[in-house]
Hints:
Elements: H1 19-32, H2 37-57, H3 62-79, H4 89-105, H5 113-116, H6 131-160, H7 167-186, H8 194-239, H9 241-254, H10 270-282, E1 292-293, E2 298-300, E3 303-305, E4 310-311, H11 315-318, H12 342-348, H13 351-354, H14 365-382, E5 383-386, E6 416-419, H15 422-433
Antiparallel strand pairs: 1-4, 2-3, 5-6
Helix pairs in contact: 1-8, 2-3, 2-14, 2-15, 3-8, 4-6, 4-8, 6-8, 7-8, 8-14
Bound molecules: protoporphyrin IX containing FE.
Amino acid sequence: MVCDLCGCKNMVAFTPYGDQSRRQRRLMHRALGPQSIPNYHPLIESETHSFIRRLLVDSSKWIAHTRRYAGGLTLYVMYGYEPAQMNDPHLTLAEECVDLLANKITGGGGLWPVDIIPALKRLPLWAPGSGFLHKAKVWKAKMEEFVDQPYDYLKSTIKAGTAVPSFCSTLLMEEEREREAEKAMDIDATKVDPAKEAERKKAAELLEFDLKWTANSMYSASMDTTITATMHFVLAMMQHPHVVAKAQAEIDRVVGHGRLPTFSDRKDLPYIEAIMSETLRWASPVPLGLPHRVMEDDVYNGMFIPKGTLIFGNNWAMTRDERIYPNAADFIPERFLEEVDEATSKRRDPRNYVFGFGRRKCPGSHLIESSLWLLMVTMLATLEMEKATDDFGKVIEPKVDFNNSVFRIPDAFDCDFRPRSEQVLSVVRQTESSA
Ligand code: HEM
């Protein structure tokens, strides 16, 4: 259902292990491997600063601002597209499709009756019980639009000569240069070898196909995960003012009051690092990860697992393991400051669980490691984040509900954001002139 009928079979997360998935992985590694991330630092900084500025103008829309930040960062990294401040058409379509994907198409583990009885695929559209075929037709068209729309934008900017460096434009232009150089080497300029020309054309088409689907997959996978992590960070800060105070004291000591934190401060801010680890652990954004299909019969802890079984790596249970994380339900960044040996330090690092496992482990983990860190430290440096109050000054306890099938994204809740001081406000304003 998910792959064929809804048109998602070429999205990275649904591509079975093989040639195509290896090509996609290579592209993602080129774009998002640890060596590429520093290239994105200026962009991450400018997106983070605009997020804080928007928040200070109208904090009642903080969730919309968070969505704009999460989508904007990936749209820019992938396609070189800078979304409008509000109601951007690409972001609106992305939100609709990511919601469709998480809550309708793959809701409930992504297993539909037609996956168990494939003959249902051939049900006539008028037959009772064929409702899923009607839905699939509409969803497939939407998903195709979602893949094509930002990519078509990118192609139009390349054609117009206005493309800015991005994952897609860089790889397409590199490939174009290689093709031209190869052609130039071949020549005997008067004759074009048709076999070679056909081969080049095929390679270019394949690259384009891979790029289009890979960029879209990264874009889809980054939106709700980033939003989930950010919303939980805000929730944790609202509920633990002593953590905020301790973090702000560390930032004030290391960064001072006259500028905003930068990546070069990171090594000197161990408590912020601990908050980041604890946020990922306490509120794993994808608690059951994505299902993996077993490729061979296997035996695990004496249990036989037949080939074809779907396995969920329950990282939620792992990050609630009391042997590694005492009082695991509580938000305690200090647990990551305790001196431990190397093996224990590795075992307690939530990044080993929350980003999944093995060959399909999250390829966006290095990007989020930088972007989320800067977002958290900048929010702490500039803002007070407290529970909202009603018209009579009574504190509104946040009501936290979850209604998403894949991501542990909380429903909207209020938070009172205020600038920490006049000085901070003026430092934040200065980022506008340097943007
Ligand atoms: C806090 C943020 C994030 C978390 C917790 C997270 C977590 C995960 C998890 C658990 C998986 C499944 C891995 C598995 O199958 O074992 C995954 C897959 C994936 N993630 Fe992330 N992710 C995050 C952010 C991102 C970002 C920012 C991007 C892209 C820019 C991204 C791109 C992907 C892609 C493309 C896949 C599919 C990989 C495949 O099937 O081969 N993720 N992520």
